[in-house]
Design a protein that fits this description.
The chain has 246 residues and is of the alpha/beta class. The chain is built from 7 helices and 7 strands, in the order E-H-E-H-E-H-E-H-E-H-E-H-H-E. Helices cover 45% and strands 14% of the residues. Strand 4, helix 4 and strand 5 (134-138) form a beta-alpha-beta unit. The protein binds NADP nicotinamide-adenine-dinucleotide phosphate (NAP). The site of NADP nicotinamide-adenine-dinucleotide phosphate has 25 residues, from helix 1.
Length: 246
């Protein structure tokens, strides 16, 4: 990955930051996108740049502002002059029980998880094509097996899975498009999974009887970016076997 340039959305914290760290450790230069987590983004940048000065830049945007998305790609080109990989990691996540779903819930969940990845991919495609680059979408095993009380989120991630395959078809042969579907990796910071019982129930249903780590997702992203030249249109579940234990 040495000398290659990658744009990671929602890269300041949690799984996104792990993706940034592994891509950077393997030699990539990074444009780290964030929305509200400016301090985390700056801390991540400082840590990575201590190892390799000039290798990490930051861009702030709310991905619901679709008209701004091409400016993220422009920021990458202004700073680094090329783009080799786009990682669509940013995501909003919250329950939408039937009867209580509003249009703004729908807009936020579909906007961050599905619409932004499409319009970012469209903006990035001409420059990715030049480098024979790739796109990795961070999906969710619940794209296929719905998570209860999360209708709009499930639909958004289901759409992202379909988008992954469709973009692979549209952007071939120059650009590969793949996905990674995490199972339980990091618990959401609010909501029902603060309860020990809810966590135990989910862990019980994995085959490996534990949660994964952000690095498990990050290593799979790195594999798809750098070591999988004949893989496109695929979505790899990284879920401790949860999806075969129905
Ligand atoms: N954690 C898990 O166990 C798990 C399980 C299944 C799937 N996944 C998927 O893996 C990816 C990473 O998971 P995570 O738990 O690390 O995600 P997360 O912490 O819930 O969210 C990642 C980032 O998305 C950004 N974001 C949300 N809405 C945005 C918007 N409208 N515009 C711009 N940025 C926005 C936020 O950036 P700021 O903080 O800068 O605002 C946030 O830090 C996500 O795609 C998620 O769906 C995770």
């Amino acid at each position: 990955m040495r000398g290659k340039v990658m744009l990671v959305t929602g890269g300041a914290r949690r799984v996104g930051a792990a993706i940034c760290r592994i891509l950077h450790a393997r030699g990539a230069n990074l444009m780290v996108h964030y929305r509200n987590s400016a301090q985390d983004a700056q801390a991540l940048q400082a840590g990575l740049e201590a190892a390799r000065p000039g290798s990490v830049a930051l861009v702030q945007a709310d991905l619901l502002e679709t008209a701004r998305l091409p400016s993220l790609v422009e920021a990458v080109l202004d700073r680094f002059g090329r783009l080799d990989a786009l990682v669509n990691n940013a995501s909003s996540f919250f329950p939408t029980p039937m009867g209580e779903i509003t249009e703004s819930h729908w807009d936020e969940l579909i906007g961050s998880n599905l619409k932004a990845p499409l319009f970012l991919a469209q903006a990035a495609a001409p420059v990715l094509r030049k480098q024979h680059g790739c796109i990795v979408n961070i999906v969710d095993i619940h794209a296929e097996w719905p998570l209860k009380r999360h209708v709009a989120y499930n639909a958004a991630k289901g759409g992202l899975a379909a988008l992954t395959r469709s973009l692979a078809q549209e952007l071939a042969p120059e650009i590969r498009v793949n996905g990674v579907s995490p199972g339980p990796i990091l618990w959401p910071e609010e909501g029902e999974w603060q309860e020990e019982d809810a966590r135990r129930h989910i862990i019980e249903r994995t085959l490996l009887k534990r949660t994964g780590e952000p690095a498990d997702i990050a290593r799979t992203v790195a594999f798809l970016v750098a070591d999988a030249p004949y893989v496109t249109g695929q979505i790899i579940a990284v879920d401790g076997g949860r999806s075969v234990n129905l």
